[in-house]
Structures are given as C-alpha cells and as structure tokens.
Amino acid sequence: MMSLKLYGYWRSSATYRVRIALNLKGLEYEYVPVHLVKDGGEQHQAAYDSLNPSHLVPTFVDDDEDIILNQSLSIIEYLDERYPEPYSLMPAHAVERARVRGLAQDIACDIQPLANLRVLQSLSNQYELSSDQTNGWCKHWIEKGFDGIERRLQTQAGRFCFDFDVTMADICLVPQVYNAKRFGVDMTRYPLILRIYDNCQALEAFQQAEPENQPDAQ
Amino acid sequence: MMSLKLYGYWRSSATYRVRIALNLKGLEYEYVPVHLVKDGGEQHQAAYDSLNPSHLVPTFVDDDEDIILNQSLSIIEYLDERYPEPYSLMPAHAVERARVRGLAQDIACDIQPLANLRVLQSLSNQYELSSDQTNGWCKHWIEKGFDGIERRLQTQAGRFCFDFDVTMADICLVPQVYNAKRFGVDMTRYPLILRIYDNCQALEAFQQAEPENQPDAQ
C-alpha cells in the first residue's frame, strides 16, 4: 500500500500539474482515477465528496500523515516544502518566488478555470453554445493569457520560465500548452512558450505525466 | 513620494484583497486607479501595458526596489514574506499553510475568474447573454464555490477561516462575499462564511479596503 495518493483525471490540467511535481520529486504514489463524465461525474459521488466537497480534481492524500489537500498549486507548494529533494521547485529569493507564483497564477487563475470541463458543460447545456462556440471561447482565453505570458517571459526566461531551473511556473505552463494544442491555438505565435515547453518535454518527469500515459486515458 | 504603489480598480476583488493585506501590514501605499471600463479600459493603454502585459489588475510596484508584481495571491505572499510584522498572514506549519493556500485558491481560481468583468463582457457581447443570464452565471459559480467552502470551514474555522488568526484565506473570502451580496446570493445558506465575514469586517484593515471607501468608487 502506498501512502501517497493522487485522485484525478487524465485530461484535467490541474491533475497533470501535480503528476509532474510528484515525478520531479521522485515520489511514488497511487493514481486514483476520478471519471469526470461517466455516470454524471464520479466527483459528485459520496466516496469523493468526503475527500473534496468542492467536487473538483485533484485531491492529494497522504494516508500515513492523515493529510487531505486540494488545489493543485497548494499541493505543489506543499510537496516542495515537505520534500525539498532532489531540488526545489521554487526560487530562494522572495521576489523571484513571487514571479514564479505570479506566472503559475496567470495560468491557474486567468486561463485554465475558464476552459475547464464544468464551464464548457455549463455553456453548452445552460446557455446553448455550439461546440464551435465553446472551442472559440477556450481558444480566446488561452490566447489572451499566452499573449501576456509570452511578453513576461521575454525578461526572465532561460532554458525554463525562470532561468535554468524547473519551477512551479513550468509545471503549470506545460499542461496549458497541451490544452492550447488541443483547442487549435497557433503556437508559432508564442516562440518562447514553445521553446520552454520543448525543453520541459525532454525531461522524463514531464513525459510520464502526460495525459495519454495515464491508466484512465481514453 | 511613496515607494509602494497599488494599481487597481475599486470593485476588482483581486485589488480589494491586496488592499486588505497592505492595511493589515500597516504599510502606506499610493493607490493608482485603473478604470476598467472608461475609454475601452485603461488597462489596455500603453502606460499600464508596460507594467502588466496581461492587462489585468492589480499590479504592485515598489519603486525603491524596482519591483513590479502581478497576481493578487502572489503579491500577498510576497508582502507577508517581505514584511513579517505585525503578524504573519500564513501559518507556520506546511500542512496548515497548504490549507490556507487551498482555500484562497478555491476562491481565486474556481470562483472569481468566472465572474469578473472581462468574462461578463465577453458573455454579453460575443455570446449575447442577457444581463439576467450573466447575473445567473455569476450566482451559480459563487454558490457552487461557497457550497464546498462552507463544508471545508466546518473542520477548521474559528473566529476566522483558520482558527483565531487572520490569514490569506480571510483576505480572499471577504471580497468574494462582497461580490456574492452584489449578485443576490442568499448568504443565510452559508452561516460559517457569514460569521467569518462579520468578524473580519470588525477590523479596520478590512473596512478601509472596501470598494466604496476608495477614491475611484462610483
């Protein structure tokens, strides 16, 4: 029995982020799929509700320490504080840390929540948007977000978002690029984002976290 | 000339959060209004674009230290690390810190981004939703979010979200309750949230940060 468990969904980009962080830390964990669509969504069922009353993924559990945490960025910072080896995912200086958090939140607050499954379901079911319209909606917010991020990266990027260290910012960027490609965003508009994405994808921790490599991938 | 500047908008709840944090830390700052509606939005003009290429508020500037930061939660954690007095806005223990960040992100990632001005403008301009429909949209996501938060608070709340200390979670909760009231959410459904809101509102730092008390209030 493994003590660390990650409840999530293969294509949830918040779950994808935590998988990358766990892999970068070299932590073994049990991946517990929560199917967000089947039977009206397993995230609404009693078993999951008791872990996460918000009915969102991911949820991180450490059985040995009786810890249940939600919110991907919060989980990633917890993992980084609790398991500092082999290297930190956050810079040592407060201003640089703020920039990493800022970029992570540019994605986790201002892009991803607008284009996730429950929002798209609501737009099509309650407001009768066509699938062309919901795809356009996603593309619009991803492009708006990437326009700002590409410019921010011009002053601070190296091999990764912040110089030559993999940080929480890269952990958020890669799943968002995966989504951008899915929604047909023209990534040639974002050469810096794409270069960092490619540099991350060269690392095994990122490859193994990809949605298509999960047991619940369809 | 004051070194610290906060660029924001009176009714932006992300700006409201940073005002509360600055007040709790007892920091003097210059408040620079960025009108999000007038002339197509001052956030898109060249002067602001050079500070924040995402064209969102708030932006925090420290002229003396040549620091420009965006994203409210990132700014708040920076302020807390840089100015630990008179007390910390984050708990000392990693698990508790993760819970505070998680609750803050329940609001800053899963509620507020869905109901902010640019999203409502897009829903009404591009997708022709009526104002009744956009109000219903806001109410729906606030209620969904508060349903989960009210349950989470049952295991951890005291006078404030986490026991008897004001944390970043309260700083996010209060502006979200302000918005909920604006959109007609029935707050009697959320007795714990309401109690914490009232306890925060008894503090001068929260009162002075209220939208109606800002120079750009309309």
TrEMBL record, chains A, B:
UniProt record, GO biological process: glutathione metabolic process; L-phenylalanine catabolic process
Taxonomic source organism: Marisediminitalea aggregata
Family per similarity comment: Belongs to the GST superfamily. Zeta family.
GST C-terminal domain ranges (all copies): 93-218
GO MF annotation terms: glutathione transferase activity; maleylacetoacetate isomerase activity
Keyword terms, alphabetized: Isomerase
Cellular component GO terms, alphabetical: cytoplasm
Domain (GST N-terminal): residue spans on this chain: 2-87
Name the UniProt record assigns to this protein: Maleylacetoacetate isomerase
